[in-house]
Amino acid sequence: MTENGDKTPLVVLDDVNKHFGSLHVLRDINLTISRGEVLVVIGPSGGGKSTLCRTINRLETIDQGTITFDGQPLAVEGKTLAKLRSEVGMVFQSFNLFAHKTILENVTLGPIKVRGIAKAEAEKRGMELLERVGIGAQASKYPAQLSGGQQQRVAIARALAMDPKMILFDEPTSALDPEMVQEVLDVMIGLAQEGMTMMVVTHEMGFARRAANRVVFMAEGQIVEENTPEEFFTNAQTDRAKDFLSKILTH
Amino acid sequence: MDELIKYAPDLLRGFLHNVQLSVVCAILSLVLGTVLVSMRVSPTPVLRAAGTTYINVVRNTPLTLVLAFSALGLSDTLGLTFSQEPSSNAFWLVSLGLSVYTASFVCEALRSGINTVSLGQAEAARAIGLTFFQSLRMIILPQAFRVVVAPLGSVMIAMIKNTTVAMAGGYLAESAFVMKDTFDTTGASIPIFLGIVVAFMVVTLPIGFFTSWLANRLAVVR
């Protein structure tokens, strides 16, 4: 992937620390995500990747440090926090589509209730987004009637419907059957090429190589290494990263 | 059998009061129960504590005492009056007491339903920018209600039968009171007794069947 965006920072994490009880899940995290950047976070399980991702829209609170989004410190609660979240899309490992709503309703709920867009307009835009991720024909079905790959594409459309400034992907393909991974990755690669700012926690090295501007390697709650995908995969600097790569790239 | 036929109009009139109480209390207790469960799961500690205290106090107080309190405490001592007409005043006091009592059970049934809705649903709702109460109203409660339709039916059936305790709150019109009154003049009568049982079953059995059917129909496939 070539250089994306205008390089002004969208998200800045400054000395962020977080504990789950006695477990120190995020240790002195300093990280800047630029507009238009596609950042891939990889690393062993329990290394704090998902937690890091979830702190950015404050689904997880932090104990110390600061996070600024678009120049503003993260809101703590209430309407300002809801507004922040409406500007940061999120795609979950387990899709989390609203089970009692149709596919189209899943996509239009946010625009109608949060943005106050008229229903007809939201539905028109929702259908466009569903067509774009290849689910247009399923708009009136319920989430449980769709395959995992389809559900995850709907989840991406739901995030896009809010016109977010960035999208967080928390292991978007980890719960999918292998044959459905690519259809989701294809949608994500398309977004990356259009310049969407993305933070992607994933184990998909192919995606990282094709779409990422930068790879961050996390282990034991720390950012151990960050580099371009090419450099990272071919010439990792730290033993911890080399060890991790040797385990996942050999098979 | 003769006494049942003779007193049937009185008993039926009494039973209509049970039905009236039931309809009013069903509406009030469902609304109040929903408000209570919103408090119990809210992120605000004060609301949570208030909800929990309400449940622990009201749910563990015998209904007869709740009704006696609405009549003697709220009305006689504190002067809460709904109507100048004593019978109508008693009706609303009993409705209030029974609704307040039933709401605690509605709340707990709903709360068990909320616990079956996965955390991811709430996270996804918050992630698109819905506030806590929006996500509760649009995402969590609709799914929770579907899960607890059958238990809520049981709560409603219990409430309908509880209307026969209304005399504890000074409301002397419903069928159990009429029955007692009739027995005072005629002596105990098994046909009258059974007649009232049948009248209740005519109302409560369909509610049981309907809510079971509805529970299956509404089940959210996950």
How does this structure look, described?
Chain A: This is ABC-type polar-amino-acid transporter. Chain A: Its EC number is 7.4.2.1. The complex is a heterodimer of chains A (251) and B (222). Chain A is 38% helix and 25% strand. Chain A contains 9 helices and 10 strands. Chain A has helices at 49-55, 78-87, 103-113, 119-132, 148-160, 178-193, 205-211, 229-234, 239-249; strands spanning 9-20, 23-34, 38-42, 64-69, 72-73, 88-91, 166-170, 197-201, 214-219, 222-227. In chain A, strand 7 (166-170), helix 6 and strand 8 (197-201) form a beta-alpha-beta unit. In chain A, helix 3 packs across helix 4 (119-132). The longest helix of chain A has 16 residues, at 178-193. Chain A is globular. By secondary structure, chain B is mainly α. Chain B is globular. In chain B, helix 1 crosses helix 4 (86-116) and helix 3 (63-77) crosses helix 4. Chain B has one domain (2-218): MetI-like fold (Orthogonal Bundle). Chain B contains 9 helices and no strands. The A-B interface holds A 57, 59, 77-79, 82-90, 92, 94-100, 109-110, 113-114, 142, 144-145, 155, 158-159, 162 and B 43, 118, 120-121, 123-131, 134, 138-139, 142-143, 146, 220-222.
Q: Residue ranges of chain A: pLDDT <50 for 5 or more in a row?
A: none
Strand content of chain A: 25-35%
| CA-based gyration radius of chain A | 18 Å
Average pLDDT of chain A: 91
* Main β-sheet, spatial strand arrangement of chain A: 6-7-8-3-9-10
Helix content of chain A: 25-40%
| Total helical segments of chain B | 9
Catalytic activity (chain A): a polar amino acid(out) + ATP + H2O = a polar amino acid(in) + ADP + phosphate + H(+)
Subcellular location (chain A): Cell membrane
EC number (chain A): 7.4.2.1
Pfam family, one (chain A): ABC_tran
Could you outline the blueprint of secondary structure elements for this entry?
The complex is a heterodimer of chains A (251) and B (222).
Chain A: E1 9-20, E2 23-34, E3 38-42, H1 49-55, E4 64-69, E5 72-73, H2 78-87, E6 88-91, H3 103-113, H4 119-132, H5 148-160, E7 166-170, H6 178-193, E8 197-201, H7 205-211, E9 214-219, E10 222-227, H8 229-234, H9 239-249
Parallel strand pairs in A: 3-8, 3-9, 6-7, 7-8
Antiparallel strand pairs in A: 1-2, 1-4, 4-5, 9-10
Helix pairs in contact in A: 3-4, 3-5, 4-5, 5-6
Chain B: H1 2-40, H2 45-59, H3 63-77, H4 86-116, H5 119-127, H6 132-147, H7 149-162, H8 175-186, H9 190-218
Helix pairs in contact in B: 1-2, 1-4, 1-7, 1-8, 1-9, 2-4, 3-4, 4-6, 4-7, 5-6, 7-9
